[in-house]
């Protein structure tokens, strides 16, 4: 204890695992809200711009382009420079995107821009820029991982992702009411203020894990030694390119990518797509669609990550993943067969439970299987995995375009197929773990 106190005081080390978890969660909650960017408001904008169902599918998905792809470099860069500067950069870019969206929406409503094509292009552009906030997931996972030892990472990452993931659900639920009371521009302006405030909070309380603070003051070898004395278990490779390369060469990384594609990328996709499903397929009001999407689905999925992390710590991420993906498949089959509100509500709840727990289980496995390159693995899994949020909404819109009204139900076959594949991959990982331990 005296040695620990000496290191903290001598080198001016700030922060703790608790404050690291709080700061990371605050940043992720703020940035991840962009998943809900167009899910509700597209129903106001689409008639103004005369958008068809496929154009709607791409618009609701566009924030997830940068939200997914930028996770790869940003997640890996944490290994190089720490999470604080990376996360701040992501949030500031998101603020710029929100400002651009507000100006574009104002121009659309006032008729300042007469070309629907240009209006749509600007919404896509600034939606993509604002979506950078979504990529705080990968950098945040790496940021929090370095603060906690392996035995506590299931809980820590479950809490981080669970509460952070709650943002789209909350925003999807309140947006219809914000639109009614504040108007389209007013609702987005309030959202911008919230994002700025949360960015400032992170800037004030968010400190990098011990190693990253120490390596700026002493050489790497000494920084590693002292960080371990302070309780830090994970030490980065120190290079973003090296971290990406090392993690890419480990085959287990790619199984986790596919598993995360349907659980987390699928979560993002349904948060954007379900308002259209509820309104167009089952004729719910916008406000009711927002509640069903935001609270019944998105918030429940997010909060299930918290017990999912605890389950993964207790029983192992592999076992928990297998069971949770089976649950996901059951829910998706119900959605494929449903043509009533009650059955769809049941299917939605079952999918939410399975996907939320699966998300926690997968990221319990990332630092376990790629401890030498957590940032790189987080980038691949979080980035390519969350590409499901980009690809699935247009794919589900294509089912509607091809099959008509019944396509809203048939599109859930995507979740059935990828969910079943994830069950198989979970079994492979479980078998590998047993062999690796010599059982």
Automatic annotation (TrEMBL):
The keyword Signal does not apply. It is found in: Membrane. This is Major facilitator superfamily MFS_1. GO terms for cellular component: membrane. It comes from the Archaea. Keywords: Membrane, Nitrate assimilation, Transmembrane, Transmembrane helix. SUPFAM superfamilies: MFS general substrate transporter. GO terms for biological process: nitrate assimilation. GO terms for molecular function: nitrate transmembrane transporter activity. Residues 19-434 form the Major facilitator superfamily (MFS) profile domain. It is a multi-pass membrane protein. InterPro entries: MFS (IPR011701), MFS_dom (IPR020846), MFS_trans_sf (IPR036259), NO3_transporter (IPR044772). The chain crosses the membrane at residues 21-44, 56-74, 86-109, 121-148, 155-179, 185-210, 250-269, 281-300, 320-337, 343-366, 378-402, 408-432. Belongs to the major facilitator superfamily. Nitrate/nitrite porter (TC 2.A.1.8) family. Gene3D superfamilies: MFS general substrate transporter like domains.
